[in-house]
Specification:
The complex is a heterodimer.
Chain A (H helix, E strand, L loop, with lengths): L16 E7 L7 H10 L9 E6 L14 H13 L4 E6 L7 H7 L2 H5 L6 E3 L5 E5 L9 E5 H5 L2 E5 L1 E5 L3 E3 L11 H4 L4 H5 L2 H11 L4 E11 L7 E11 L2 H11 L8 H9 L8 E5 L2 H4 L22
Parallel strand pairs in A: 1-12, 2-3, 2-7, 3-4, 7-10, 8-10
Antiparallel strand pairs in A: 1-11, 5-6, 8-9, 10-11
Chain B lengths: L15 H15 L17 H13 L7 H14 L18 H9 L6 H13 L7 H9 L25 H13 L9 H14 L13 E2 L2 E2 L4 H10 L7 H12 L7 H13 L11 H8 L5 H10 L16
Antiparallel strand pairs in B: 1-2
Classes of the chains: A alpha/beta, B mainly alpha.
C-alpha cells in the first residue's frame, strides 16, 4: 500500500524534486535502456513491490498520435521488472470509449508487452472503494476509486506530452482523470466536468498522488488536444519523482508558463514543486529541449514570452 | 477463472453462435458470485451492470441452454440492490442511483416478482432530468461564448450517466429502450414526453457523417469521430424509425466500419445492431471467436454477455422477452 501522508505537503516542507530530461528522437531506439538507466538514478523503492503504470489511453489510435506510445509503456514495464518489482501492472480507464480492448488493440499494446490478460487492468471496471476528498478543491466530497490504484505499492503516471482544449495542458496530473471509473461516473466522466476540471484534477491527485511520472514527449500533440490536435515531434522523455515538477518542466519544454496553468499553479502549493529553483534538473536542460507547442487562442496567456519563440 | 479456451480451434474457428454456447455461456455461469450477482470480471464484486447483461444473456439462451436457477439468483441480486428511491447504484457501496437503473429495469422487465421494483425504477428515471438543458443553463449558455464551443441543441434532453449532469448518448439510449419495452399503462405521465425529447436529443447529437460517439458531434468546429458502441445503442433506441435518413446514414456508417472493430464488445454489438436493422452480417467480417483469441475479452462479463446476445437469431431480448438462439 502506498503512503497517503506524502501526497499533501506544503511546498516549503517538501524536499527538492528531481526531474530528468532524456533525448529520444523516435520510437525505434532502445527506450528500455534509456528508461532503465534514468530510473536507476532515483533509487526507487520498488523491489518486490507491485507497480502500476497508468498510461494515457484516450481512444482508437492506430497511428499512436494521442495515446502514450506502447513502446514507452513496454520499455517502462521491463525497466521496473529489472529493478526488482514483483509485478508491474498496466491500467487505465479511457474516458470517451468504453471498449478498452479496442483502444489497446488499436495501438498494438499487446505486441509490445505480450499477453495482457493478467497484466492489464481496465480501471473503468475495477472494484471500487469510497475515498473522502480532503482537499475540497472541487465540490466533490467523495469519489469511488479503483481498488487496484489504491492498493498498489507504487503508482506511475505515464501521459503523453499534449495540449488540452479545456485545461491548457494534459500531463501527469491530468492523466489521473483516467483512474476515475467509468462504470460509476460514465464515459465521459462528466461529473468531473461539472465539478470543474481544474479543481477535480487537484482532488484526484490529492487522493491518489502518483509516486513517479514518465512523460512520452517523443511525439506529443499541440493545438486542439487531447484528441484532435496536431502531432508534434519533441524528442524527449521527461521523468521525475514529483508529478508537479515533471509537469512544470514539460510546460517549460513546450514554451509555456506552468504558473499560468490554473490547476498546476494550485498544485504547486500542496502536491509538489512548480518553482524551477526547487527542481533538481538532470539530463538535458530545458533550454536545449525546448520545442514550442501551439495552443488554442483560449490559452494564449500560457505562452512564455521569455522563451523567445512566440514572436 | 479462464473461459474454456481449449474449445477454440484456431484452424477451424467456431461460428459466433457455437462460440457463445461453448465458451461464453459456461464462462458466465462459472463467474457468478455467491450473492447471485456478477462482477465486471470473475472474482470482482457483484455490480448492477454486468449482472443485468448476464441475466439478459442467460435468458436469451434459455431455450438452448437452460440456466433457470442461475438466472433466478441473478434476478434476486438485482432486486436486492435497488435503493429506496427506486434507482440502482453502480456499485453496492454507492448511495445514489445512476445510469445502471435503466439496465436493471430492463433485465427485470420479464420478472413477475419485480413489477413494483421496475415501476419504481422507471418512475425514478422519468424524474431524473439532466442539468444542462434547464432553462437557467440554456439562458446562461446564450450569454457565455465558450458554451458555443460545442454545437448542440440543449432543449433536447436525454439522460446523463449520473443525476444532475449532462445528457449523453448511451444512458439516453438505455432509457429510451426501457421506455419502449415497458407496457404503456405502467408508465408515468412524463414518460412519453421524456422519450420524445430523448429521441430528438439522439438525432441532434449524431455525428455529421452518421453514427454517434459519446455525445460530442462537433467540438471547436471539428467533427467528432463516431464509435461503434454508442452508435449501436443509439440505433437500437431508434430502430422503430428505420426509414429516417439519420438512421440509414448511421447504419451505413456502422456497416462500413465493421472492419475497424478492434474489440470483441464492439464487434458483438455491431452484429446485434446490423441484424436488428435487417442488414446481413457480411461474409469475411471478423468473428467474435477470433477476437476472443487475442485477449480473452479481458475477462469482461459484459462483453461475454453481448457475445451471447449477438448469437441470437431473433433479438426478442431487446423487447424484454426471451429469444430463440441458434
Amino acid at each position: 500500500m502506498r503512503r497517503p501522508d506524502i501526497a499533501l505537503v506544503p511546498s516549503f516542507q517538501r524536499a527538492t524534486s528531481r526531474v530528468v530530461i532524456r533525448r529520444a528522437a523516435d520510437y525505434e531506439q532502445d527506450l528500455a535502456a534509456v528508461i532503465y538507466e534514468s530510473l536507476r538514478a532515483f533509487d526507487l523503492p520498488v523491489k518486490d513491490k507491485t507497480v502500476l503504470l497508468k498510461p494515457n489511453l484516450v481512444g482508437f489510435d492506430p497511428l499512436c498520435e494521442m495515446n502514450t506510445h506502447p513502446y514507452v509503456i513496454a520499455a517502462t514495464r521491463e525497466s521496473f521488472l529489472r529493478l526488482g518489482a514483483a509485478q508491474v501492472l498496466i491500467g487505465d480507464g479511457p474516458a470517451m470509449d468504453r471498449d478498452t480492448e479496442a483502444i489497446i488493440e488499436s495501438v498494438r499494446l499487446r505486441e509490445f508487452t505480450g499477453p495482457l490478460g493478467r497484466t492489464f487492468v481496465d480501471l473503468n471496471l475495477d472494484d471500487v472503494k469510497r475515498v473522502l476528498l480532503s482537499t475540497h478543491a472541487s465540490r466533490l466530497k467523495e469519489l469511488y476509486l479503483p481498488k487496484t490504484v489504491l492498493g498498489v505499492d507504487f503508482l506511475v503516471s505515464m501521459p503523453k506530452l499534449k495540449t488540452h482544449h479545456w485545461a491548457g495542458v494534459t500531463l501527469s496530473l491530468k492523466n489521473m482523470f483516467g483512474i476515475v471509473p467509468g462504470s460509476c461516473y460514465g464515459w465521459p466522466k462528466n461529473v468531473l466536468h461539472w465539478a470543474g476540471i481544474d479543481n477535480s484534477i487537484l482532488d484526484i491527485n490529492a487522493a491518489s498522488r502518483p509516486d513517479f511520472a514518465i512523460v512520452d514527449g517523443i511525439v506529443g500533440m499541440e493545438g486542439n488536444g487531447p484528441v484532435q490536435g496536431t502531432p508534434k515531434p519533441c524528442g524527449v522523455l521527461v521523468l521525475g519523482d514529483d508529478p508537479v515538477a515533471v509537469d512544470a518542466t514539460c510546460c517549460r519544454v513546450m514554451g509555456l508558463r506552468p504558473e499560468k496553468v490554473k490547476y498546476l499553479n494550485a498544485a504547486g502549493t500542496l502536491l509538489g514543486h512548480l518553482d524551477a529553483a526547487k527542481i533538481h534538473q538532470l539530463g538535458e536542460t530545458v533550454a536545449s529541449a525546448r520545442t514550442p507547442f501551439a495552443v488554442l487562442d483560449a490559452f494564449k496567456e500560457l505562452r512564455d514570452p521569455g522563451a523567445g519563440v512566440w514572436n | 477463472m479462464t473461459p474454456a479456451r481449449e474449445n477454440l480451434h484456431a484452424a477451424n474457428p467456431l461460428s459466433d453462435s457455437a462460440f457463445a454456447m461453448k465458451v461464453c455461456f459456461p464462462f458466465i455461469c462459472k463467474a457468478q458470485n455467491g450473492d447471485g450477482g456478477w462482477g465486471y470480471q470473475p472474482g470482482l464484486d457483484s455490480r448492477v451492470e454486468p449482472t443485468s447483461w448476464a441475466v439478459l444473456a442467460l435468458r436469451a439462451l434459455e431455450s438452448s441452454a437452460p440456466s433457470t436457477e442461475i438466472s433466478a439468483r441473478g434476478l434476486q441480486f438485482l432486486r436486492n440492490a435497488q435503493l429506496a428511491n427506486g434507482s440502482w447504484p453502480a456499485s453496492a457501496e454507492m448511495r445514489s442511483g445512476c445510469w445502471v437503473t435503466a439496465l436493471a429495469c430492463w433485465a427485470l422487465a420479464a420478472d413477475v416478482q419485480a413489477r413494483a421494483a421496475v415501476a419504481a425504477g422507471v418512475k425514478w428515471i422519468c424524474n431524473d432530468w439532466p442539468r444542462d438543458g434547464s432553462l437557467w443553463r440554456r439562458w446562461r449558455g446564450r450569454l457565455l461564448s465558450h458554451h458555443k464551443i460545442a454545437k448542440q441543441n440543449d432543449s433536447y434532453r436525454g439522460w446523463g450517466w449520473t443525476p444532475q449532469t449532462s445528457s449523453w448518448v448511451e444512458p439516453t439510449s438505455f432509457a429510451v429502450i426501457l421506455l419502449a419495452i415497458s407496457p404503456i399503462k405502467s408508465l408515468p405521465k412524463a414518460a412519453a414526453r421524456r422519450r420524445e425529447l430523448a429521441r430528438r436529443m439522439l438525432y441532434d447529437r449524431m455525428c455529421p457523417g452518421g453514427g454517434w460517439n459519446c455525445g460530442n458531434p462537433m467540438v471547436y468546429g471539428v467533427a467528432g469521430e463516431p464509435l461503434i458502441v454508442p452508435t449501436v445503442w443509439a440505433l437500437l433506441a431508434l430502430h422503430d424509425e428505420p426509414d429516417k435518413p439519420e438512421f440509414i446514414m448511421s447504419l451505413d456508417w456502422l456497416e462500413k466500419n465493421l472492419g475497424n472493430a478492434r474489440g470483441a464488445g464492439s464487434l458483438a454489438l455491431a452484429r446485434i445492431g446490423m441484424e436488428v436493422a435487417g442488414r446481413k452480417w457480411p461474409h469475411g467480417a471478423p468473428t467474435i471467436a477470433e477476437m476472443y483469441g487475442r485477449n480473452e475479452f479481458l475477462q469482461n462479463i459484459a462483453v461475454a454477455s453481448w457475445a451471447c446476445l449477438a448469437a441470437c437469431q431473433r433479438h426478442e431480448w431487446l423487447a424484454g422477452g426471451v429469444a430463440e438462439c441458434s
